[in-house]
Amino acid sequence: MKKKEETRKEEIHPLELIKPRSLKFLSHKLINLVESRLWLKVIVGMFLGIILGLILGPTIGIIDPQVSAIFVEWLALPGTVFLRIIQMIIIPLIFASVIRGIAANNNIQSLKKIGLVVVVYFIFTTIIAISLGIVLVSVIEPGQYISQETIQSSFESTPAGLGQELETPKLQEVPALLGTILTTNPIGSMLHGEMLQIVILSIIFGIALVNMSPKRSRPIIELMGSLQEVCMTIVKWAMILAPIAVFGLMTKVVSQLGIEALIGTSVYVLTVLLGLLLLLLFYLLIVFFVGGIHPKEFLKSAKDVQLLAFSTSSSAAVMPLSIKTAEEKLRVRPSISQFIIPIGTTINMDGTALYQAIAIVFLAQVFGIDLALTALLLLVVTIVGASIGSPGTPGVGMVILAGTLGTLGIPIAGIALIIGVDRLLDMNRTAINVTGDLTACVVLNKIVKLDKSRREEINEQTRLEIHRTEKGVDVIIHEHTA
User: Fold this and answer.
1) Do the Cβ atoms of 245 and 86 come closer than 8 Å?
2) In sequence order, which residues have a C-beta less than 8 Å from that of residue 441 and are 6 or more positions away?
3) Which pTM value belongs to this model?
4) 83/94 Cα distance (integer angstroms)
5) What are the φ/ψ torsions at residue 210 (nearest 5 degrees)?
6) Phi, then psi, of 64 in degrees rounded to 5
7) CA 15, 20, 23 angle in degrees (round to 5)?
8) Alpha helices in 265-395 (DSSP H)
9) Closest by alpha carbon to 112, among 442, 445, 448, 456?
10) DSSP label at 473?
11) Per-residue b or e along 117-142, where b marks 16 or more CB atoms closer than 10 Å to that residue's CB
12) Considering Cα of 316, then 320, then 321, then 325, what sign does the dihedral take?
């Protein structure tokens, strides 16, 4: 009898024995931001920044340009600090959250099921988003509304050489490029913000960790939990600056470009916003037909996450609230939400992908570059690769865009035309990105069949949380190892 018990004990996978606390328990650090209507303060700051920017800029011209330039640089300082704080914590937060998300799964078989389906789903929705953006910008043609005067004025101070075309990889070079997704220098990847490599490293690290003896893996998983909490505390501090940051950044942008340049890009802005709205409708259709949730109910449940993402421009920063919303309002199983949200924050960037497609075709129209079918196919592949693994931080879309334009022979200097309105678009596409993560949770919760039901997972999570509270620990090891 004793021998049978020992055999059964050996058959239990280490993943089933170690139980870390969910990231959703850090959502309390974000609830106050929602209750204080941070999103409204950000919108007010944005409009006040536009008004002050018009006063200080060339549109009205009542202040000396040199004095105005010095003044707006100081006004934009809180915005620069805010963006850098968010960017500073994203890599450690993603690294820790992916590892903890893997450790939160019930068993290795369910992890394999979720992993395979989620990759296919993410690639599918990303391609849909890019295709939607290409069709929309091709029909509306916002590039035709930009005057040559605006183009010339935008490029007056642009350094030469930015528009050089990058070589498209040859077929024989593709295997070598695919091989680079495995980093040989983790520290170097973190320094250079290579998020795809970091995510893959996190997945490999997490899977290796949960295959170890729970007693040996526990200290590292606890360390990752502490790292998450430190990052979320920093996010909470940074959010105090958000309205002031948006105010200063908008003041600087509008004062430099003037109202004429903003009006010239208004059709482009409306095209992107329309594309994001259509993408949201696509999500609602998926949620209704696959997940069986009414669109009104889904939007009501996702509202707080969307508004906070809009305010922060960072899908990674709102991960705890996203997980809490998925589990408690959308009735998603914890094993799915705690795995998909951290992964989706980095590789499920449909809003960003749609924006990339519209921005690239828009700039091609501005410069009179005709994108043939082969170029559009290359565009789809390039954006899929660029959006997967992009960090969920403010302004990342502009960085990705700069790296994508040269592939198609479009002058990178064209970014000067759209950088002024990127703050508004960044906030909106981040809200759509987190909506996409919640949609993925609903879909996979419906189509992936796991051994335990949602109720069983919730009951186990509640029991474990009581045990953690009693013992005063973050990670507990199942009784089988006691």
Assistant:
1) no
2) 326, 330, 332, 336, 337, 340, 341
3) 0.73
4) 17
5) -80, -5
6) -55, 130
7) 125
8) 266-289, 295-312, 319-328, 334-347, 350-366, 373-387
9) 448
10) -
11) bbeebbeebbbbbbebbbebbeebeb
12) positive
CA separation, residue 43 to residues 40, 47, 56, 242, 320 (Å): 5, 6, 20, 10, 23
Give the Cα separation of 143 and 178 in Å (integer). 34
C-alpha span between 59 and 67 (Å, rounded): 15
Q: Which residues of 324-359 are buried (b: 16+ CB within 10 A; e: fewer)?
A: bbbbebbbbbbbbbbbbbbbbbbbbbbbbbbbbbbb
Other CB atoms within 10 Å distance of the CB of residue 370: 7
φ, ψ for residue 80 (rounded to 5)?
-65, -45
SS3 content of the chain, % helix, strand, coil (to 5): 80, 0, 20
- pLDDT tens, per residue, the chain with 482 residues: 444 444 444 466 665 666 677 667 777 667 777 777 777 888 888 888 888 888 887 767 677 778 888 888 888 888 888 878 877 877 787 788 778 777 766 556 666 677 778 888 988 998 899 899 999 999 998 888 776 555 555 444 443 333 334 344 555 555 665 666 677 777 777 777 666 677 778 888 888 887 888 888 888 888 888 888 888 788 778 878 888 888 888 888 778 766 666 666 788 889 999 999 999 999 999 999 999 999 999 999 999 999 988 887 878 788 889 999 999 999 998 888 888 888 888 778 888 889 888 988 888 888 777 776 666 776 776 666 655 545 445 555 555 666 566 556 677 666 666 766 777 788 898 899 999 999 999 999 888 877 677 787 777 777 777 777 777 777 767 654 43
Residue 320 buriedness (CB in 10 A; 0-12 / 13-18 / 19+): buried
User: Which residue has 């019930």 as its token pair?
Assistant: 106
Are 441 and 336 within 8 A, CB to CB?
A: yes
User: CA torsion sign, 104 to 105 to 108 to 114?
Assistant: negative
Report how far residue 257's alpha carbon sits from residue 261's, in angstroms, rounded to the nearest whole number.
6
CA distances from 361 to 127, 296, 405 (A): 16, 33, 10
Closest CA to 253 of 421, 48, 396: 421
**CB-CB contact of 317 with 345 (8 Å):** no
Cα–Cα distance for residue pair 424/46, rounded to 1 Å: 8
Domains and CATH numbers, the chain: 19-481 (1.10.3860.10)
C-beta of residue 356 within 8 angstroms of C-beta of residue 404? yes
- Containing 214, the helix (H) or strand (E) segment is helix 214-239
Q: How many CB atoms lie within 10 A of CB 470?
A: 9
